Amino acid sequence: MNGDPMQFEEPILQIRRQIEEVSAADGDPSQLAELQEKLTKTAHDIYANLTPWQKTLVARHPQRPYTLDFIATLFDEWTEIHGDRNFADDPAIVAGFARFHGQPCTVIGHQKGRNTKEKIVRNFGQPRPEGFRKALRVMKLAEKFKTPIFSFVDTQGAYPGVGAEERGQAQAIAVNLREMASLQVPIVVSVIGEGGSGGALGLGVGDRVFMLEHAVYSVISPEGCAAILWKNASAAADAAAAMRITATDLKKFGIIDEIVPEPPGGAHADPAQAAELLRPYLDKALKELQKVKASVLPEERYKKFRRMGVFEKG
Length: 314
Fold this sequence. Notes:
about 325 residues; about 45% helix; eight-stranded mixed β-sheet; 2-enoyl-CoA Hydratase, Chain A, domain 1; globular
């Protein structure tokens, strides 16, 4: 973990710099095409062999598309709703109404900040209780107006501050788990970056759960796991490998339903394309779920989550 943690991207960055230099000099179009082809192949080869820890770093990349980026590309007529009608508005979670392919829908998701000011405002994407309560308020409206819910998961975890605990952090997450399980509208969840612990699960109970190719989903961060088991946070790479947090592992375990491919070089290399790659998965899931009776959805959702995990009788 010494040096540049994203050092594996250096060959990609070198080719990009070459492309910029040739473009600035109005170079030969055939040379540009050759460099672009080389870039695509290099990015594909590198990202096809990432370790779990490297995928964690990619999931945290500062240029990776966040919930509002996906909303801007995939949805129309986005109208954000603020506040939990109890304590405050939590900018770490965005929630509101939009249209997906012309159809009214509800969208919720974690939101990180891109620069220092935004990160502070968004609390680094770590929700407080009022964030989960805001999300639930909007989801209940979705059920009232019979609109499907699209949820985007991207958080290191729920905020562990004293104020959050005093205002019922654990209860807020637990209530969301219970209520999402019983909502009589389709819920489509997409893990787009980090899926961390209860903070992720508070928006993660769905009829379909998708995960971007280089996202991660875990009960604790690799650093947290390493600090507990190895008494050394620098063992995060070993922890990431042991925790089986990648999309490939989680698909194998039945935790997620589908792995959504990312552009060569990761979603941060082309956020718009990353959203377009997700679009058909959302469209297909919605069409399938709309064929299911509203009263049957909670029962099927319950069965889905009960099937998770392997149990051995002693």
